[in-house]
Amino acid sequence: MTVPSLPHQAPPAPQLLRVATYNIHKGVQGLGPTRRLEIHNLGLAVEQMDADIVCLQEVRKMNRREAEYFRRWPDVPQADFLAPEGYRAVYQTNAYTRHGEHGNALLTRWPVITHQHEDISDHRFEQRGLLHVEVMFQGHPVHAIVVHLGLIPGSRVRQIQQLQRFIEREIPPGAPLVVAGDFNDWGSQLKRMLAGYGLYEFEAQDMNSLTYPARLPLAQLDHVYVRGLTPLGLHVPQGRIWWRMSDHLPLIAEFRF
């Protein structure tokens, strides 16, 4: 008996996860009476990134002084305002100030399973936190952690150690994991520490990964590290329209399952 041959089936297309991280400088650029409201331009920028997960730092929930100063200040928290149509916004406050509060946010076009926040402040002069969100990406649970580390080198080391304890406590060992944000680090110590924890990023071979300061980038302070995913590449948008919106440039990275 001759067995009929089956029609050729192409292998399934690789699943690509696109992650962006962006310190938005609270939606305002400049100081004093010449400062500019950039939150509306940032909303267009976030939509243009077309990312599955957008990790944001220095996001204002509210600020009474700026709301009085700017006529076009949004009526909703910045995370909700920046979320493109069809995206879910998750926000947690890190810092409380005289006029309001700000923190980290994650925007995603995929369903959110759970989310939580942990205080990682190292001293009383800097209020810092991590935001953990689990999303369901194309049928796969993916854990994402948004961070904004401190300005003092020793603080950053201790915050990375606290991050690792959080991961060991809250995230299954085999689960795909993304850790993204503003690491505020000009050296390679944190990269080595994260590699020791099994977290890696795409290794750019040129200067196109530099994100700070936006007008003339000298360092890559913003990173997307992963575990259980394959880094494919990264992109940093360039040009005047981008450096006018924040003191950081966004970083966009792609990964394969």
TrEMBL record:
<dbReference type="Pfam" id="PF03372">
    <property type="entry name" value="Exo_endo_phos"/>
</dbReference>
<protein>
    <submittedName>
        <fullName>Endonuclease/exonuclease/phosphatase family protein</fullName>
    </submittedName>
</protein>
<dbReference type="InterPro" id="IPR005135">
    <property type="entry name" value="Endo/exonuclease/phosphatase"/>
</dbReference>
<keyword id="KW-0540">Nuclease</keyword>
<feature type="domain" description="Endonuclease/exonuclease/phosphatase">
    <location>
        <begin position="20"/>
        <end position="248"/>
    </location>
</feature>
<keyword id="KW-0255">Endonuclease</keyword>
<keyword id="KW-0378">Hydrolase</keyword>
<dbReference type="InterPro" id="IPR036691">
    <property type="entry name" value="Endo/exonu/phosph_ase_sf"/>
</dbReference>
<dbReference type="InterPro" id="IPR051916">
    <property type="entry name" value="GPI-anchor_lipid_remodeler"/>
</dbReference>
<dbReference type="GO" id="GO:0004519">
    <property type="term" value="F:endonuclease activity"/>
</dbReference>
